Amino acid sequence: MTEPIRCTWAGLADPMYLAYHDDEWGRPLKGDDEVFERVSLETFQSGLSWLTILRKRENFRAAFDRFSIPKVAAYTEQDVERLLGDAGIIRNRAKIEAVIGNARAAHDLPGGLSELVWRHADPDAPVPATMADVPAVTPGSKALAKELKKHGFRFVGPTTAYALMQAIGLVNDHIKDCLARSR
């Protein structure tokens, strides 16, 4: 029996990574708090392995009030200090402060964060034959990063914006023969 084909980044060793690839990555995800969680996790991932973030995701959810935009937007310096002392998350002051600032920016968005992000969906993006065909940045991710920054978001450059687009299904970058492509 042949092994199913998956995008090579999913690896085969970690069940958490496989489940994320097979059941989550590239699937449409909407809702302001849900999208905010992904923006926040992408912020923390910057410079780190996504598997590191996945392994700490439940800790992040607990530490950041399940990424409730109104709750995180109301965080104070005491919350920053609390988060800096939380060994279950990535304790980087700049990233923690960016997530809080991003919650405040998201809270003030007319129409909400999900609506803003989904305006940049690219359902007609080419289907990659191999991972070499998957870009790191696209005109759409540049436009999304620019718009987020215009509204006060931080840690959202074009590469991070594209990773977000992939993660929440604005594009489907599962390779052509990947078992998760058509799910």
Automatic annotation (TrEMBL):
Keywords: Metal-binding, Zinc. GO terms for molecular function: DNA-3-methyladenine glycosylase activity; metal ion binding. Coiled coil: none annotated. The keyword Iron does not apply. The keyword DNA-binding does not apply. GO terms for biological process: base-excision repair. InterPro entries: Adenine_glyco (IPR005019), DNA-3mA_glycosylase (IPR052891), DNA_glycosylase (IPR011257), Tag (IPR004597). Zn(2+) binds at residues 7, 21, 174, 178. It holds the Pfam family Adenine_glyco. PANTHER family: DNA-3-METHYLADENINE GLYCOSYLASE 1 (PTHR30037), DNA-3-METHYLADENINE GLYCOSYLASE I (PTHR30037:SF4). This is DNA-3-methyladenine glycosylase I. It comes from Nonomuraea fuscirosea.
